[in-house]
Amino acid sequence: MLTIGVMGLGTIAQKAYLPVYTQMQNQVHWVLSTRNDDKLQQLATQDGLAIAGTTLEDLDAQPLDAIMIHTPTETHYQYVKHFLEKGVNVFVDKPLATDMGQINELYDLADTQHVLLTVGFNRRFAPMIQDLAEVDDKTGVRVDKNRIDAPDDPEHALWDLFIHPVDTALMLAGYPEKPNTRYSLHTGDDGKLQQASVIFTAPGIRGEAGIDLQAGTNLEEAQVAAPSGVQRVQNLDQLVVYGRGGATQTFAPDWQPMLTTRGFQPMVQAFVQAVADPEGKNPVSPATSQLTHAVVADLVNQIKA
């Protein structure tokens, strides 16, 4: 059985990951770590998971096959590098880092150490997004994320929120190697980001990713167009297919767990399987992750210019 450490037990880890880990205890011996000992004891008892301790040294003392890093973005570079240097496979929440030099350095290190470095782009694994990805001969892709009255610091919003629609749009477009990109963004008088978009073109396809932080609703949409028609996914759980004969709508099955619908369960499962298999491929390939990070970094750099 694999031994995998879990570093950081904040809100996202508790909501999106611990329920998945709990269901996979027949495959993995999970060991938890966070600096807050009270939280550590509570969550380990609640979920029936083992405790590594409250320090990095406690995790180092474990015979780890992999580590799941759910700590704040600004700590990712330090912790990812630490475990890669020890030859441990790493899964880390997006973004990997906010500096392309550091991002490329970490991927180079993972390659040198012959270990996995997987970034948590869960929407790639959402069943309905995968349905869109399988549409043949796509000519257009559009992915939008809308939030109600949520203007935010531009750099934080782009790296924390906008990175998802960017990654999904690039995935649906087949990860063009050298897309031609154009960016736009709008900030309020207070300097907070209200809207941003990126348009990219590559041979045979046009893609767009957008975010609106002052929309009147919380809505996430992904759409692909092809000669066969248009298909649109809303909130990862509704699919509408528009064809010449009309439209059909389907919903995620009632019995399907929400964390499967949102891609978290299949993403973690894919990472665990890759760790277990000596020939396992990275479920989030370095090249595609680097492309997504580079597009976001380009837009952030325009803010700083």
From TrEMBL:
EC number in record: 1.-.-.-
Keywords noted in UniProt: Oxidoreductase
Residue ranges occupied by any Gfo/Idh/MocA-like oxidoreductase N-terminal domain in the UniProt entry: 3-121
Enzyme class label: oxidoreductase
Name of the featured protein: Putative oxidoreductase YceM
A GO MF label: nucleotide binding
One Pfam family it belongs to: GFO_IDH_MocA
Organism: Lacticaseibacillus paracasei
Domain YceM-like C-terminal span(s) in chain numbering: 134-239
